[in-house]
Amino acid sequence: MALFYQHNINQRTRLAIWRIEEPESFFLQQVPLKRDVTHPYKRLQHLAGRFLLRELFADFPLAEIEVADTKKPFLPNEKYHFSISHSGNFAAAIVSSESRVGIDIELVTPRIERIAHKFLCAEEKAFLAPWELFDKIRTELTTMIWSSKEAIFKWYGEGQVDFKNHMQLAGTVRYASNEWMTLPYCFLKTGDQSLQLQARLFDPLVLSYVVT
Ligand SMILES: CC(C)(COP(=O)(O)OP(=O)(O)OC[C@H]1O[C@@H](n2cnc3c(N)ncnc32)[C@H](O)[C@@H]1OP(=O)(O)O)[C@@H](O)C(=O)NCCC(=O)NCCS
């Protein structure tokens, strides 16, 4: 068993992170592999994500998962809403019987700085500015913003979202290490919707999720 972290948000909504230490055969005992994932490591990540769904809710009907044209996985009867993410040897999942959800997990690496200009809006650059001289914290927070936007992308599920213009930080954030942080976001793709992203740094990764 390699459950790294579990958070029961309430009775109906739970999330967890799994540290992948098992061979493929371990996950295949429970998870039907319905899609041809050719790369062995990606297949292991894929299987671990699905496996985690049933760790969270034992009656999760894995065999009923379908994948939309946008690549969003879903259950046709919506018994549960769910979202999955992987990064390195970690997989994360969130499952809810009542709310729409999105999750993302990212290993923190300075490489994020190279693409930051593609997804940071003016408000986010202003939020990061005081951390200019603190490389580690700046990289963590930049990764957190990226991860939050990936979580919103998955929560939305319809694709075609502009990361800089459709998702924007809109309010103050209190920095905290090893505690949940709330990031107030505006989702502008379909009007002007307020979203409260929850994010947390777990060395060496960042986890973000949204529940509505
Ligand atoms: C789909 C996407 C969010 C996946 O993120 P990633 O970091 O590559 O991978 P993750 O491991 O976090 O997530 C993969 C999981 O997301 C889920 N997923 C894939 N597409 C999805 C979608 N459209 N909606 C919701 N969930 C989706 C799947 O469960 C997938 O895992 P699985 O195939 O094993 O089931 C990402 O590839 C993407 O397309 N991002 C948007 C691209 C973009 O516009 N970028 C602009 C940058 S400026």
Walkthrough of the structure:
By secondary structure, the chain is of the alpha+beta class. It has 2 domains: about 5-100, 4'-phosphopantetheinyl transferase domain (Ribosomal Protein L22, Chain A, Alpha-Beta Complex), CATH 3.90.470; about 110-210, Ribosomal Protein L22, Chain A (Alpha-Beta Complex), CATH 3.90.470.20. It has helices at about 25-30, 40-55, 110-120, 120-130, 135-155; strands spanning about 5-10, 15-20, 65, 75, 80-85, 90-95, 100-105, 165-170, 180-185, 195-200, 205-210. The strands form 3 sheets. Strands 7-11-10-9-8 form a 5-stranded antiparallel β-sheet, covered by helices on one side. A hairpin with a 5-residue loop joins β9 (about 180-185) and β10. The chain is globular and about 50 Å long. The model has no long low-confidence stretch (mean pLDDT about 95). Coenzyme A binds near residues 83, 118 and 150.
Write the layout of secondary structure elements.
Layout: E1 3-10, E2 13-19, H1 24-28, H2 40-56, E3 66-67, E4 73-74, E5 81-87, E6 90-96, E7 101-107, H3 112-119, H4 122-128, H5 135-156, E8 167-169, E9 181-187, E10 193-202, E11 205-211
Antiparallel strand pairs: 1-2, 2-6, 3-4, 5-6, 7-11, 8-9, 9-10, 10-11
Helix pairs in contact: 3-5
Bound molecules: coenzyme A (COA).
The site of coenzyme A has 19 residues, from helix 2, strand 5, helix 3 and helix 5.
What key phrases describe this protein's structure?
single chain; 212 residues; alpha+beta; Ribosomal Protein L22, Chain A; 2 domains; five-stranded antiparallel β-sheet; four-stranded antiparallel β-sheet; 11 strands; 28% helix; binds coenzyme A
